[in-house]
Amino acid sequence: MFQHLLVICTGNICRSPVAAAMLRAALPDRDIASAGLGALVGQGVEPTARELAEADGLDVGAHRARQVTPAMLSRAELILVMSEGQRRAVGELAPAALGKTLLLGRWLDGGSLEGQGMEIPDPYRQSRDAFEQTHRLLKAATAAWADRL
Asked: What is the pLDDT of residue 117?
């Protein structure tokens, strides 16, 4: 059973902190953290992402973006990323982590990655509709992972 999970996106202000909060709500006995590959260090959750998360009863108010480190990757037993490019970037940063790095959308249908799941698009600086679509994907993806963990 995976106890230490790490959710990664780009800036650590939209997708990964919200997905981590969703996983913590579903799996309260686990250590679930988030970070970014190009983190906007110190920033809180992007306002639209925060509004959607809070509407679902998630508390993301204390979140501050942080840059992923090799130590974080080493500690995590499962690393969930939003895209295949991010999975490759994790592998470049810490080759030993590649085998435990999977797409957050791994269990979602409709992905173009031939059985590897679905990438979850970055809504940063996009429309509210883009944030809402990403939020729906995060909910479905985290629920699927929670069922399997």
From this structure: 85
Phi, psi of 11 (to 5 degrees): -90, -15
Residue 66: phi and psi, rounded to 5, are -140, 150
Residue 30 annotated among the catalytic residues of the structure: no
Q: Are 134 and 110 in contact (CB under 8 A)?
A: no
Active site residue 9: yes
pTM of the predicted protein model: 0.95
> What pLDDT, in 10s, does the model give residues 18-34?
999 999 999 999 999 99
**Choice among 30, 31, 64, 122 that is catalytic:** 122
When the pLDDT of each residue in the chain is averaged and rounded to a whole number, the result is 95
CATH class of 4-144: alpha beta
Length of the chain equals 149
From the candidates 14, 15, 87, 106, give the one annotated as an active-site residue: 15
